[in-house]
Amino acid sequence: MALLRSIHQGVKPICTIQRYLPAVLRRRWSDLDEHVPTRISDVHMKNSGLMIQWSGHRLESLLTANMPYVYLRDQQGQRPANQIDISVQAKHVEICENGQKLLVTWSDGCSSYYQSTWLLQHRTGTDDVSGRLAVDRVFWSSTSFASRMLHCDYEDVMSKDSTLLDCILNLESCGAVLIENAGLKPRQAVTLCDRIAYPKPVVYGYDVMKLEAKPNATSLAYTNIQIPLHTDMPYCEHVPGILLLHCIHQVEGDGGRTMCSDGFHVVEELKKRKPAAFQMLSQYPIQFRDAGDDYVGHNIDAMQKPIRCVWQCAVDS
Predict the structure, then answer these.
(1) Fewer CB within 10 A of the terminal residue: the chain, N end or C end?
(2) Per residue, what are the HEC states of the chain?
(3) Is the pLDDT confidence value at 31 over 80?
């Protein structure tokens, strides 16, 4: 079974996951506290917010964070925007339970407790726009792909949080992970998806897209025609962040191989070799359209830039 981030495949079935990885990690952070910082080591009251510091972790960019007072005070439940006091200040802060909690006494007389893990997951004031985890992305090519690909055992991913974390971090940095020994049950991909986040329904299936060649197919995915490298579902306004590909039965004879490429690496090379082409593809949206009735009748389209620039680098849309 393979987990892929915005790159394509040729095996079956496919399970699409809605949440992108940083959000996935936020959901399961409390289960992975042996690998991530959960202890507040220091806190300072500034003019507009708290400067909080955590200790003992491997991702240096997460050591400190500035948490605005109005943001923290507004986390005490939903209320109308006109009832939010934007001038609220902290009168006193105290680190409690060996750094696991933070007590804030406010200028309006209220007091609030915040879990260390919650503060870290919802921190503000950083330059990282890719999500809550600052994970360096590693580009790869055909010559370096084998050394970059992480191999994990399915049962280990399902039962060990440490293996799950390694899997997710590698997926975030490299964009692909190979999970072995997943078995032959058709819905193993859904089980794994539930371990990470939740599936996103698409026009080819509610949670699983079963890819098998069939007559009179309207999509190339249901034919035995060789499909070149491409990006999945650009016709969706909100594309699933992860594809889970579970190969249950390998085709006999030639063909059936899975191909994938690093969109980051491709676009970086395009910027170097054809800067004019990069500028055009990253500035002008075009129409992506898909129509058919293989699973449910549909005719959908979206205007998207072929290349979207995020995280201060280019990513294939």
Answers:
(1) C
(2) CEEECCCCCCCCCEEEECCCHHHHHHHHHHHHCCCCCCCEEEEEECCCEEEEEECCCCCHHHCEEEEEHHHHHCCCCCCCHHHCCCCCCEEEEEEEHHHCEEEEEECCCCEEEEEHHHHHHCCCCCCCCCCCCCCCCCCCCCCCHHHHCEEEEHHHHHHCHHHHHHHHHHHHHHCEEEEECCCCCCCHHHHHHHHHCCECCECCECCCECCCCCCCCCCHHHCCCCCCCCCCCCCCCCCCCEEEECCCCCCCCCCCCCCCCCHHHHHHHHHHHCHHHHHHHHHCCEEEEEEECCCCCEEEEEEECCEEEECCEEEEC
(3) no
Residues 6+ apart with CB under 8 A from 170: 150, 177
Mean pLDDT score of the chain: 78
Q: pTM of the entire structure?
A: 0.65
Token duo for residue 17: 């996951």
Non-local (6+) Cβ contacts of 16 within 8 A are 199, 200, 202, 209, 233, 240, 242, 243, 244
Q: Residues 189-244: pLDDT tens digits?
A: 889 988 888 888 888 877 788 878 888 888 888 888 888 888 888 888 887 788 88
Residue whose pair of structure tokens reads 């959000």 in the numeric block = 23
Instruction: Count Cβ atoms within 10 A of the Cβ of residue 185 and give its class: 0-12 exposed, 13-18 middle, 19 or more buried.
Output: exposed
Neighbouring CB atoms inside 10 A of 202's CB total 21
Q: Is 260 exposed, middle or buried (CB count within 10 Å of its CB: 0-12, 13-18, 19+)?
A: buried
Closest CA to 175 of 227, 242, 232, 230: 242
Do residues 158 and 141 make contact, with C-beta atoms less than 8 angstroms apart? no
Measured CA to CA, the distance from residue 175 to residue 169 in angstroms comes to 9
